[in-house]
Amino acid sequence: MDMDNEETRMKDSKRRERQAGSSRHGKHDIEAALENPDTDIGLCGWLLVAFSILLMLATLPISIWMCIKIVKEYERAIIFRLGRILRGGAKGPGLFFILPCTDSFINVDMRTITFDIPPQEVLTKDSVTVSVDGVVYYRVQNATLAVANITNADAATRLLAQTTLRNVLGTKNLAEILSDREEIAHSMQSTLDDATDDWGIKVERVEIKDVKLPHQLQRAMAAEAEATREARAKVIAAEGEMNASRALKEASLVIAESPSALQLRYLQTLNTIAAEKNSTIIFPLPLEMMQGFIKH
C-alpha cells in the first residue's frame, strides 16, 4: 500500500513538472515572438518607411525634435512600426530614435505599484460572513508582454486580486483567517504571480490589512472569552482552597504534637489584632481553662 502511494506521488510530481516545463516553454516562445517579430513588413511597408525617412531628411533640423524621444530611468518604451513591435523589445532608459510618420510608442512604468484591495464580503468555510481587505505590491517585469498581451494590466491585476482574495478565504475557517494571515498572504501571492506571469507582471508582496466581523459575532466571541476566563478563575480559586486546606491540615498536625505551639499562635494572633488599632475588645483566657472542653 505504501509502495502504491509512493508511486502515485512520483507520477503526480512528474506530471506537474512536465506541465510547468511546457508552460515555461510556451511563455518563452510567446516572449521571443513578441520581442523578435518578423521584420518583413511587405513592399508597401518598406515604401512607407523610405518615404518617412526622406521626409525626415528633407525637414531637418526641425524634424529631429520629432524623432528623438527620452524615457526616464524607471520607464521603458515599446516602439511600434506600422503596427509591429520593433526587434529588441523595450527601449530605454535614455534617448531613442523613431520615425515620425510610421512609428508610435507606449511608455511603461517599471516601478513597484501599490493598491488597496477593497473590503470583500467573504463566506468562510464554516459559514461565517467576514469583511476582509488587503494590499498588493506588484511591478511590470516585462514591458513587452504588459503591452502586447493585455489591454490594461493595472485594472486586470486589481480585479484578479479581488477574486483571488475571495477564492482563498472561501476555503478557510474563521479561526484560520484570524491566525494564519501570513500563510494566506503567501498563498495569494503565489496564485497572483502565476496568473499574471503571462502579462509580464511580478507580484512582489500581498498583505491582509483587516478582518472585520459582524457585531453579533463579536459580542458572541466576547461572551465566550469572558465565560472561559470566569471558568478558569473558578478553577484556580478551587485549587487555591484545596492547597490551603492541605496546608491547614498539616499545621493542625504540627500544633497537635506540641501544646505550646497553640499558645504561641494565640499570642501571635493577639499581637496582630492589637497592631491594627481597631476598637476590638479582647478578653484573653488561659488555655488551661479550655482543656476541660478539649478533653470532652
Molecular structure report:
The protein is of the alpha+beta class and 296 residues long. Helices cover 55% and strands 20% of the residues. The protein has ten helices and eight strands. The strands form three sheets. The chain has a three-stranded antiparallel β-sheet. Strands 6-7-8 form a three-stranded antiparallel β-sheet. Helix 8 packs across helix 9. The model has no long low-confidence stretch (mean pLDDT 79).
List keywords for this structure.
3-stranded antiparallel β-sheet; 8 strands; alpha+beta; single chain; 296 residues
Topology (SSEs and partners):
Elements: H1 2-35, H2 42-58, H3 64-67, E1 68-71, E2 75-81, E3 84-85, E4 94-97, E5 103-109, E6 113-123, E7 129-140, H4 143-148, H5 153-169, H6 174-179, H7 181-195, E8 201-212, H8 215-257, H9 259-275, H10 291-295
Antiparallel strand pairs: 1-4, 2-3, 2-5, 6-7, 7-8
